[in-house]
Amino acid sequence: MSRYREKAVWITGASSGIGEALCHAFGARGARVALSARNGAALEAVRAALPGGGGHVVVPLDLGDPATLPPAAVAVEADLGPVEVLVLNAGISQRALALDTCLAVDRRLMEVNYFGNLALIKAVLPGMVARGSGQIVAVTSLVGKFGTPLRSGYAASKHALHGFLDSLRAEAWRHGVEVTIACPGFVRTRLSLNALTGAGEPQGTMDRATAAGMDPRACAEAIVAAAEGGRDEVLVGGREVLGVYLKRFLPGVFSRVIRTARVV
Hints:
This protein is α/β, with parallel strands linked by helices and about 260 residues long. Helices cover about 45% and strands about 15% of the residues. Strands 3-2-1-4-5-6-7 form a seven-stranded parallel β-sheet, sandwiched between helices.
């Protein structure tokens, strides 16, 4: 029997891509899922297709709007009860040189990918600590492990989130709270379509590398399996995963390779 059976699992970025696949993966394991993203209609369509009948709820939110986040946490717990597993999947990417990216875009990336996620963690963490159990699963990126061209602000936001979560894990274990970081590489989602240009507009085109990436359902299964096994971290993807090891063991080689790597 899955450890997630009858657990209240809150998933952000649940309207498509990896988030939608995570909803199905947790739902198939018997979890009661709260689905969050900005698009309420898309969330309702995902919820209607999930296993488990009427045990799932939709709670829209916008990670870039701090005022919406504490009320969303209250709404989720009013519908499902205490959040036992928080899955932080929502985020926004970037496709622009650092030279061409205005500071407002860098701030937007940090607000959504870092501060928005921190706000949700801080909303549910006290309850987890009080109960002596809980799990935070953060879907970040391989770019949280190393930077690449065209993603300077995105990489910064993911590196910041990794640092926070590593520290949180070292603190929260004594309260029975687990932290799993999942680092996907290229996955076939809308991430590149919605990635911000230097001026802050959606790119509107699909990267070739993204289009050729992993099926989001396979990615979600790998993430949930790692979380269910209590792993601290999991790398998910194809050959791009090797970049983590190249950066760690041969940093000079990595520095030369990443300059011309195909990242779009």
